[in-house]
Amino acid sequence: MTLIDASFKGFPGHLAPLEMSQIGEQDWSLLKGHLPFPLAVLKQSALTHNLAWMQDFCQTRGLDIAPHGKTTMSPELYRLQLQAGAWGISFATVFQASLGIRNGVERIIIANQVFQEADLDTLSNLLRQHPAVKVHFLVDSQAHIDAIERWRASRASETVFTVLIELGIDGKRTGCRDHAQAMALARSIKSTAGLRLSGIECYEGSLATCHHVHDQAAVAALMSRVQRLAKECEDEDLFECDEVLLTAGGSAIFDLVAAHLKPLLSRPVRGVLRSGCYLTHDHVHYKQMLKCVGERLQLTETLKPALEVISCVQSCPEPGLALLSMGKRDVSFDMDLPVPVWRAKLNDLATQGVPGHWEITALNDQHAYLRFDAKAPVQEHPFVGLIVGSGISHPCTTFDKWRWMPVVNNHYEVMDAVSIHF
Hints:
single chain, alpha/beta, Lyase, Ornithine Decarboxylase, Chain A, domain 1, TIM Barrel, 28% helix, globular
């Protein structure tokens, strides 16, 4: 159980500590001022929609999903994803994977290299303590294999790690750059006692431009490399697994890789997407990317934004400027600035949209600069005490600023809560 108290930003400091599971029983309403702002919240209706939408997307294509748990670092949200049918959860580090294992996740992809001795010690220990857990991690060089073998010899370890070869893209992040390198690596893995090859991994997100012709061609070229490597590894009997795992799929152009994750091999193939941001989506970056997905698939509806940061107007120091009580400590700004989406007065029964001329133009540590047209009708002006809900861009870097988030209904009444463990 997770205890929440006054040390958690956004929790009412005058109240006694509560178990996270008790949050939904408190009859809190954000529009009635029961919780202090700024506060990041999750909208229950959007979460429910997004879980069902993505599961349907995968099922209709014969694919699985292991959503990237680094997005949220929230065990409660992992459980929602697994209950909705997720095959497993992906992570970027052993530390992150350990959170999943401690909270019942049994199938894990560490979509990164694992080679430091302390991480190998930790992962080996976790696998001993949790024999039902299956972990796959990435390798992309002989130096990586050599580091694992040195560790294994120094510990006299009998741990056998299951690994995926990572294919990379010139000028981008990790991964083998050419086919010959990848095949040499596969042969080396087969001859290494402490490793077993279970599949191929890649990441296509860095190719995304939202220009359909470019994105389709770039992803097709990458996935052709994946399929060629998988076929030749099978021809040489280099896989040591019951089913071959092929995994890709960030949160931007996952529809394009989805068409290439089930090549025809003689043994079973499991195609696994790793999209993480689909669960909460956003109001800017991924909204635009999913608009492009919708265009390619001819969909009228895709994902809905579930994550908002709520603040209030704390000062209107000059015409056309209001300062909101949130800043870089509270909301993501690495891709785009937040966007105001609704407003309400304290004790209003519902929210209303914001005027089109409202714009957040800058953030300080604890302030957001809300610019507006000072010549607009006065009823369109923000005022001190006004509650403002803002959408975000890139969920990952909003989650890491909070230790908990309330889950709210469409009237901003608190129904539940999740913990966050960055």
